[in-house]
Amino acid sequence: MSRLTEARITIDNQALAVEIAGENELNLRLLEEVFPAKVISRGYDIIIRGEENNVNRIQDILLDIIEVADSRGSIARDEVYSTIKMVSGDYTTSVAALLLDGVPVPYKRRIIRPKTAGQREYVRSIKKNTLTFCIGPAGTGKTYLAMALAVFYLTRGDVNRIVLVRPAIEAGEHLGFLPGDFKEKVSPYLRPLYDALNDMMGFDRIRSDIERGTIEVAPLAYMRGRTLNNSFVVLDEAQNTTNEQMKMFLTRLGFNSKAVITGDITQIDLPKDKPSGLVEVQYFLKGIKDLSFVYLTEEDVVRHKLVQRIVTAHERHEEKKKLELKKQRDNIINEK
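Above: the chain sequence. Below: its structure as C-alpha cells.
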C-alpha cells in the first residue's frame, strides 16, 4: 500500500473548470470510481486525496486535459467523460494523444485511434477545418475515420445530423438503367457507408436514426437544391464527381456544418471526356482559409499487408504508363 498524499490543481478558467468537472461533477465521480481516491472541486481548485499512485494518475489525467483544452481553446464535458472511461486501467495511454487524435465512439465504448502519421494529420485537419479533402488509395481509412468523427460530433451534439453521400456512377453503371426501386438501385453503392456505420453504432441505432432523419445516406444527385445546416457531411468516392457535381456539392454546405470529401484519383470511373471534380479542385482551392487537403499514401494503408502490396504495385504500374505515354509524345514531337 502506497502512502497517502494530496495534490491540488488550480484552473484559472472557471468555464473550463466546470467542463472538466462535468454536470453534477460526474467526471470527478468517475475518476474516484476508476482510481479510488477523493476528488473535490473547490472554486478554481481541484483537490485530490488518496494513495500516492492513484493521486498521481488522476493529477496526470487532469493536467493533460487542461493542456489540450488550452491548446484547442475549449473542451466538452462529454469528451472528458469519454476519455476518462477509455483510459481507465490503461496506464500506457496518453490522455493528450486521445483528445488530440483519438475519436471516441460512445456506442461501442472505445476510441478509434489513427494508426499512421498521415491518418493523424487527417483527423486533426477534420477537427480544425470546416472542409477537408482527403485523397489516397484504398485501405488508408479515408471513409472510416470520417464516419467515426461524424458519429462523434453527432453524439456530442455539435451537429444535428449526419449526411453521407456517394456519386451513383461506378464501373460504368447509371441508376436509370438498373432494375428495382430507388432503395434497391442505390443500396449497392451505399453499402460501404452502412458497413462503417454499423461498426460504430449497431444496426438498431442506425435504423432508428435513419427513420428520424438524424442520419441520411443518399446518392449525390439528391443533394441538388438543398442547404445542409448543422450537419456533418461526408462525400465518399469523390473522384467520380464531375466538375459540375463537385461545385454543386460544395455549395450545399450551410451554417454550423462540417464536410469531408474523400476519394482515390487513381480509380476514376468517369467517361474519358469528363474530368474528375476531385482532381480539378486541387488546382484552385488550395490556400483557402478553413479548408485543407490531406494526402494519404501506401504507407497509410492499414488493411491486410497484401492490400498494401497491391496498392504499391498499382501505383508503380500507373507511373510506368505515364512515363511510356510521355515518351511516345516526345517521339511524335521529334518526328515532326
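The longest helix spans residues 305-335.
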